Every structure is written in C-alpha cells, then in structure tokens.
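chain below, 579 aa
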Amino acid sequence: MEKMKIVLILFYLLHFVTSNSVVRDFQIKTPIRRKMDKVSKECVVQLSNEHPFFNFDPLIVQYKPPTQCGAIGKWSMISLNITATVNGTQYDRLGLFFINNVEIWRTSSSEPTKAGIVWSTLKEVTRYRSLFATEGKAVFHLGNEVFGPYTGIFRTTITLVFHPEEKKKSLESYPDQILSIIQKQNGNDSNPFSIGQTSLKTPSFSLLTIPQNTKEAWVEIFASGNGNEEFWYTNVPDSLAQNFSAIGKGPFREVQLFLDGELIGSAFPCPVIFTGGINPLLWRPSHSYGALDQPTYYIDVSPHLGKLTDGKPHNFTLNVAGMGTGFSINDNWFVTGNLQLRLAKCSGRTTGRITYNSVGPTFLNPSLSVYSTSNTSVYLKVLTTRTIQIKAALQTCEGKLNVKYFQKLNYQNVMTLSNGGNDQTVNQQTTVNANSMHNDVIVFQESSSFPLVVNTTLVVQGPVQILGSIVNRSFSRITTQPFELDKKTTVLNQDASGNFKMKNNIGFAGEGNQTLFFSYKDDEGFTYERHLSIVKNYLNADQEYGTLKGYPSGFNPNLIDGPDAPPSEFPIRSPRLMK
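prediction:
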C-alpha cells in the first residue's frame, strides 16, 4: 500500500447537495452575561469594515477610547465582535487580536464554500479595560494566501461596544495594569512567538519592569499548535515515526513559563480542532469548541513579587516542550502572554521572599510503553504529571501578604496505529487542579479536564480511498479566575463523525454528523444550556435553556439561510493525510 506523504493536499468535493445560499457557521459558547436591551447607553467603535485579508499583512488601526460612555477606563462592560465572510476555496486561518500590543483574543476562520460562508462571534473583554483606556493601536492578524486554487479572501468587520459604569456591585474587578509578553520584530510589537524545533536555542522572552507597589501578578498564556504541531496529540515518538511514515516528537506538550531562567508555572494545553481539522465536514455548521475562542491559561506570579518589584527588568520566557531529542517539538506553536497586575493604593514597595519552592524537573520525561504485534501495528501509552507548589511571605505597603500557589497537572495518551499507520485511535486525558491563596483567601482556583478521542481510518477499495473520522471531545472547567469572586462552571460534550471518498486524490462524496451538549452556570445566577443535533451537515435539532437564553454570543443557528450542506470544494488537513 502506498503511504501518503507529508503534504497539505487540496481535495475537491463535488457538491452532491445543491445550495446557493450563504452558510452561517458558529461556535457554541457562553453568551455575553447581560441583557443588552437593559443597558441605558452604549458606545460603538468600529475598527474595520469588511477589511480584506489576502496576504500576511495584519490589520493595524489607530484606536481612541470613547468619551461618551462615562469615565474612561471605568466601563462596566466591553464586548468585541468579529464578523467575516469568505467564498471560494481556502484553508482555515489563525486569528490573533491585540490592543496596545497585548493579545486578548485567539480565534480562527471558517473554511468557505463557493457560495460563501459568514461567521460572527462575540467576546466579553472587560478584563482588559485598562488597555482600552489608552489611545494606541488595535491589531488583528489573519494571515492568508491567495494563489492558484486558493481563492478565498476573508472580509472582516470588527466592532467594539462599551457600556458605562454601573452603580450596582459586581463580583468582578479588573487589573490595574497589563504588560505584554510578545515577539517584537519589524517595528511591530504585536506578534506572537513562533516556537519550534530551535526554540530551546532561541528562547521567546520579554523583559518587563513592574511598579514597586504591585500586590498581585498573574500571567495569562495564549498557545496554539500549527503546521506539524496542529495535531500534536496524534504525533508518535521519534522511534516509531519512520516505520509508520508519521509525524514524530510524541503526543505530549507542555507550555512553560520561566522567570529569569527558572520554571515558575506550566500548562498542559487543551486540544483545539480548527474548522478544517481532521475532516472539515465534522464542523459544519457547528465548529469544534474553542475554534473561535481558544481557552487561555493563568499562572500566579505573585509569590515572586519580592524580586520583581526591585525596579529592574526581569526576563519572562515562554516555551513549548515535547518528546523529541532535547525535549524538542516540530514547527511550530504560536505563543503569547500578558502580565496582569493589581496595585496597592499606597506607593511603598512590595518586599518579601520565597519560603517554599517545588516545581519538579525543568523538563518532563514522560513514561512511554510500546507494544508492537507486527511492523504494521503498534499500541503505546504516554503518562506524565507535573506538581508545582510555591509559597511566599510578602510585605506590601498595605500589610502582610502570605501567598500559596499550587498546580497539579496530569496527562495520559493511549494510541493505537494499525493498517501500516493508515488507521489510528487516540484517547487522551488531561486534568488540571490549581489554586492560589492570598492570606488564606482563595483568589484563584481551577478544576479542568480535556478528554479527547480521535479515530481515523483510511480504507482503499480499488481506485477509491475512504477516510472515516470519529471525534469525541469534552471540555470541563470549574474556575474562579484572577480578579473575580464568582465561580464559573463550563461543561461541553461534542461528538462528531463523518467520511468522504476520494479517487486519485479527488474527493467526490462525504458528510458529517454531530451532537453537542453545552452548559454554563456561575455564582451570579446566570445559567445556559444548548443541545444540538446535526445530521449530514443539516441542523436537525436545536434546544436552548437557562437565564441566558437568547443573549448574544454570535449567530443563532436557527437563523441559517437555507440548507447547510457540505462545501463544494475545500482543503483538508488530517493526521492520516499529513504523514
């Protein structure tokens, strides 16, 4: 059997369901948590109007804060909307939104049809209101290429909506200052770090100096795999890569945060499947969770304030470690971070010292068990864990502050390769338990799990190849985030299955099915549930419940114009086709 090479092949799927209507794609997520029609005033700032993305030049807009919605920087809510259209043939593309050089939203695009696709999504960005209070730049990256068969141009409209300060008491507060951990190049300070095979030799870092009266400090990390790292959870150890014509460096990844060369925090990333991932027909019209709003990861840096407040610049380094030689990975991951600070009301310097510090080895060496029944099939298991515990005794100008930070991360990946590597099953489990206590008060907690099962098969019947795909994924996160007092619980279960047929690498038939359950609740009394059923890429059932029913989060799938049929032609990326 001839094995397929490591290429991104453009497949043409002949449209077996005729539809000339524009398809509306969407991702189910928590809606904006306020009734917009009950807000007395709002200020709209439009950053772009159908801006075309046809190359890798970012959209750069000079931003000014609105002056008609009360005191600048005291807004009760800020929402950011991205709406885009595209038609033709194009890959999905990664999107990054920056305000004043700080990334605040990691998103992606939909893959188009000839008739066209439109998607729209909302994100509450009030946490970053200190950034919006200052005149500066808004930057949106949606790198794209238009050449040969790739004809799709993304036309993107971006809008901010501000709401004035409210008198009612909120369970949320916001950082006083936010600093960026980004790549600075070519005169543009709004770029992600590209971390790949040479990242350990050329670390990705920012030198930051923070105010001396800082009393809380948190790093928020944005990270996503790209290229040969997009399906990192399906990658095999280097020892098996050649025999199965597969991508190596193993399936485990750790996103690491270093301060002045010392490891201080870690994230085991949540798998995000983009709209063209594994099989595009799985995610039409309902995207895989996180595709339009990727999850981020918080690390408490407060234990280190005794050193950070000395008025000197300190090195914040981000890295992604894998299972290759020297803990290397493939090319590449895009990573940024930001440092969120709460300042004391007095001006004296925060001092103190670390009283306990246990982070384990700098780089994890997961246990690997391999069982092979023949040279065409193999079973393997990868296990590892990371425990971090850091304590500090600090003295702020407001009084004593004892900080206790804890992380417990667990990872397991069970993988089977058979049929010479053409068939693969991946069962990955990732769990996170973390908390931070300041003077014995819990200021941050997280209990999360990111289970993922991916089953892909490639069957050859004479000149016809049939690719089957089954994805079962879950996302559970119970968290009280920094600067917030309310606990939020998000639970998702999303099951998708589909197939398509190819002849001479030309697709001529296919379909996708999906069921989805989503629920959200918080301590402020907001609740939301969504149940979806999609059969052969048609929306079959949609049920919505809870106090947030009808609140805006983007498109309502009930508003889809006409049948939501598979695309007429599309590029596809699948682990079985990237070997």
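Residues 372 and 378 are 4 Å apart (CA to CA). The two ends are 14 Å apart (CA to CA).
thats it, cya
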